[in-house]
Design a protein that fits this description.
Low-confidence stretches: none
Number of helices: 15
Structural class: alpha/beta
Mean pLDDT: 93
Distance between the termini: 27 Å
Strand content: 15-25%
Shape: globular
Number of strands: 14
Oligomer: single chain
Length: about 375
């Protein structure tokens, strides 16, 4: 079993909402971390049915519990009415709850009791390189980092099943949209926009729907934790920056499958896209697990200069080049950015054999960069 980077030790005994996309490993982790706690699994039909009929059973069954006890409820979004009972038990008895799920969208839409600030929010991401002994970069780029997918040689079948489960259980059963066929087509179009600036008008035309529906569909991806936006960094004076956000699916393997990319090899455009996506995915997870206040953005100017990742207020700037030898021409975006932020730490993450320095920029092999990232040496 992988030793995950997620930790709830800093929560001071507070209750927690633990969110994460399907199959990122929440249930496995919860069972390992809280082996002796009362555990309610709402994916189990009998458990779900009895608590659906009688939510008050939760309070009755936990009558003798108190501040020293922890209770886990898995897939809490399937039964929002339980949160009133949870709220009561936290307030009156001081019980600690760990409430996990793959989407808060249904809870928000129904105006559900979200415990009035009595529970912090955490997120579990797909696997990261720092959790995997003998991390295999090529496997990660091709298969993605969902645990069941990373561990096999060819993840195509499992990725197909994953998309099916997501569409049927997350989207259809939770009634997040009325037209599943249109949403399915949108999902494939959204995957082709992975890592690109969003132009809603173009996406709407490709999907045959209006821009308002496109924006609503993107919000579904974000709320179900299978996609996220990275805003443009605009705090530069020398060059006008573009504010439009980029969009990434939460896992490079899912993006590969939806884009019909497979057997990716260095040197191809598809490999380059997946390479960038994987490193962005790791940075997102690092910022989340370390509770960093610094935000991830990207920088692109109207004149065509671009930097793939900016951390904080220009403190760190990172380019991704899936090249075996970074050339001087690859440094133009970072050099332009440094004109406004001369003290920024500048990196190019590549497939170079050894780390080196060029024009004041650190050229770092991808696996070494990822080790440094999780050792706290980058951000």
């Amino acid at each position: 079993m992988y030793i995950r980077k997620l930790s709830l030790e800093d929560e001071n005994g507070d209750s927690v909402f633990l969110w994460g996309a399907r199959q990122t490993g929440k249930t496995t982790w919860l069972i390992s971390q809280f082996p002796n706690c009362r555990y309610y699994d709402l994916l189990h039909p009998a458990e779900f049915e009895r608590l659906l009929r009688h939510p008050e059973l939760l309070s009755e069954e936990l009558e003798d519990f108190g501040p020293e006890d922890t209770v886990v409820i898995d897939e809490i979004q399937k039964l929002p009415q339980l949160l009133d009972e949870v709220h009561y038990l936290i307030q009156r008895k001081g019980i600690r709850f760990i409430l996990s799920g793959s989407s808060a969208r249904k809870l928000k839409r129904l105006g559900t009791n979200l415990l009035g600030g009595r529970a912090s929010k955490e997120q579990m991401y797909p696997l990261v390189s720092g959790e995997i002994p003998d991390f295999d970069l090529e496997r990660a780029i091709n298969n993605g980092m969902i645990p069941r997918h990373y561990m096999v040689q060819n993840a195509t079948q499992r990725l197909r099943g994953y998309i099916g489960v997501y569409l049927n259980e997350e989207i259809k059963q939770e009634a997040l949209t009325r037209n599943l066929n249109t949403f399915t087509h949108f999902l494939e179009v959204a995957a082709r926009c992975d890592g690109e600036m969003l132009v809603y008008k173009n996406i709407a035309q490709d999907c045959g729907i209006d821009q308002r529906t496109v924006k609503e569909y993107f919000s579904i991806l974000e709320d179900t934790l299978v996609g996220y936006f990275i805003p443009g960094f605009t705090a530069t004076n020398k060059r006008r920056a573009i504010a439009a956000p980029k969009f990434y699916l939460f896992d490079v393997g899912v993006a590969n499958y939806l884009c019909h990319r497979s057997n990716l090899k260095p040197g191809s455009d598809d490999y380059g896209h997946a390479f960038e996506h994987l490193i962005i995915q790791e940075i997102i997870a690092y910022l989340g697990y370390t509770h960093s206040e610094e935000k991830l953005t990207y920088w692109r100017t109207s004149g065509g200069y671009e930097v793939d990742a900016i951390i904080g207020n220009g403190r760190v700037a990172i380019e991704f080049k899936s090249s075996e030898e970074v050339k001087s021409r690859h440094t133009h975006g970072l050099k332009a950015f440094s004109e406004d932020y001369p003290d920024a730490k500048l990196y190019i993450v590549s497939l170079d054999k050894y780390k080196r320095k060029m024009n004041g920029i650190d050229i770092v092999p991808a696996k070494e960069f990822l080790r440094d990232l999780w050792d706290g040496k980058v951000i």
